[in-house]
Amino acid sequence: MSGMFKKVLIANRGEIAVRIIRACRELGVKCVAVYSTADRKSLHAQIADEAICIGSPATKDSYLNMNAIIQACLNCGADAIHPGFGFLSENAEFARLCEKYGINFIGPSYHSIEMLGDKANAKKTMAKAGVPVIPGSDGAVSSIEEAREIAEKAGYPVLVKASAGGGGRGIRLVSSPSELEMQIESAKREAMNYFGDDTVYIEKFLINPHHVEIQILADKTGNTIYLGERDCSMQRRNQKVLEECPSPIVSDELRRKMGESAVTVARQCGYYNAGTIEFLVDENRDYYFMEMNTRIQVEHPITEEVTGIDLVKAQIEIASGMSLNIKQEDIKLRGHAIECRINAENPELDFRPSPGTITALYMPGGPGIRIDGAVYQGYTITPYYDSMISKLIAHGSDRDDAIRKMKWALAEFIVDGVDTNIDFHLGIIKQPEFRDGNYDIGFLNRYMEKHKKN
């Protein structure tokens, strides 16, 4: 394949590293895994063509250690790095380092990451481009006095959000003026602890909207397409739990409008590679730009199932300089897909992580069922990283069919040795509100409160 990389280093771990290895194999590209000492027996380190230890278990010493990863890449002769998601995937400095050492970064340019990684600046950029944004500050808030004026103008309740945030960190709900200063300080402290940046901005809190994201692909010549949407409204404490594609609330017309806005966002920023533009959709079906993720998403498989497009292969091809070989009119949504994130955690104990050794494992299969995972019987889930066991994806001819497939797949899933959230997922998809597609980002918190009382 002309221009394709010879060897790709994967700067990640777990199921996404395994997913990238498989994409590389299909493209005829050799792959190199990196691993911490805690991940010596991990699946990604075992199945890659080469594996290099880059440090001790602490992420700062391994998967966040830019110098160790760059050195590993140079030592093994890889000509590209795929960052996966999390860790260094949205770190502009890492992307810049790759360029400095002549390594292809499988993602957007560091300029785009800088522009969109700061959520306050991204919002300001989108407003100038005519993309609907949530009412609030135009950018970062510089003082308590300014914050009070903005909050009064937007109307309470408001959210204080970390500009460099992600994963639900650095977000505070403010219901009244008396809470504002305290919640700003709290958000700034958490943002500094997690991101090393205490910049915050303010936006109107939309009551029980849907969280809908648009997947895009863009090549280096400016060809940009959108691949439908994913509904990520099933969230616990701002963390996604279950996603589906397409969204049960999005009409063909709304999909077109949101998709065109997403393409505008990408073109405005000179963006290339895979990306996701996240929107909030209110009860009137008005939508507002929230943020852009400049990487592959955890929930990307449901888009792959519905569109038939391999997003990870597309990422690698775009980074190698290849042009998109599909046009917008080629994108057809076929059927419906649902993803459940299966984690080693105990929902009855406030979702406490459950590290330990998997003593027995049976993962479901059959028509329409896909597992993206990196565990095996005898594998030890360590306390150092996230507790994901696998992503369970069900693809059906329509939404009802996908729900039916997911029910029996969850019922067949067996994991012994650690606690899991499998029964929790079963409880969710049996709820009438989910079955009817009548849920929003507040649903799961209400469901859990009801469950506690019972």
Structure description:
With about 450 residues, this protein is α+β, with helices and mostly antiparallel strands. It has 3 domains: about 5-105, Rossmann fold; about 135-205, Dna Ligase, domain 1; about 210-454, ATP-grasp fold, B domain (D-amino Acid Aminotransferase, Chain A, domain 1, 2-Layer Sandwich), CATH 3.30.470. The protein has helices spanning about 15-25, 45, 65-75, 90-100, 110-115, 120-130, 145-155, 180-195, 250-270, 300-305, 310-320, 400-410, 420-430, 430-435, 445-454, and strands spanning about 5-10, 30-35, 50-55, 80, 105, 160, 170-175, 200-205, 210-220, 225-235, 240-245, 275-280, 285-295, 335-345, 345, 350-355, 355, 360, 370-375, 380, 390-395, 415. The strands form 6 sheets. Strands 13-12-9-10-11-14-21-19 form an 8-stranded antiparallel sheet, with helices on both faces. A hairpin with a 5-residue loop joins strand 12 and strand 13 (about 285-295). The model has no long low-confidence stretch (mean pLDDT about 95).
Describe the structure in brief:
With 454 residues, this protein is an alpha+beta fold.
CATH class designation of the largest domain: Alpha Beta
Sum up the overall morphology in one term.
globular
Number of strands: 22
Provide the CATH superfamily of the largest domain. ATP-grasp fold, B domain
According to CATH, what is the topology of the largest domain? D-amino Acid Aminotransferase, Chain A, domain 1
Report helical residue fraction.
25-40%
Query: How would you write the strand order of the largest sheet?
Result: 13-12-9-10-11-14-21-19
Task: Give the name of the CATH architecture of the largest domain.
Answer: 2-Layer Sandwich
Alpha-carbon Rg, integer: 21 Å
